[in-house]
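Listing S7. Sequence submitted for prediction.
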Amino acid sequence: MGKAAILKEIWSFLRVRRKWWLLPVIVILCLVGVLLLLTEGSALAPFIYALF
């Protein structure tokens, strides 16, 4: 199962179940995950981890 299939499954769940309030939660979690991955090996990592 690829990444595109997972995104398609989440989108169909949101559309069928009308759980639109979950969309901002998912987007923010993905953005935080990307932020943590990008700053993982940098000098900014201690400052980012201190925020959470």
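Caption to Listing S7: primary sequence and predicted structure tokens for the chain studied. The CA atoms of residues 1 and 7 lie 11 Å apart. The two ends are 31 Å apart (CA to CA).
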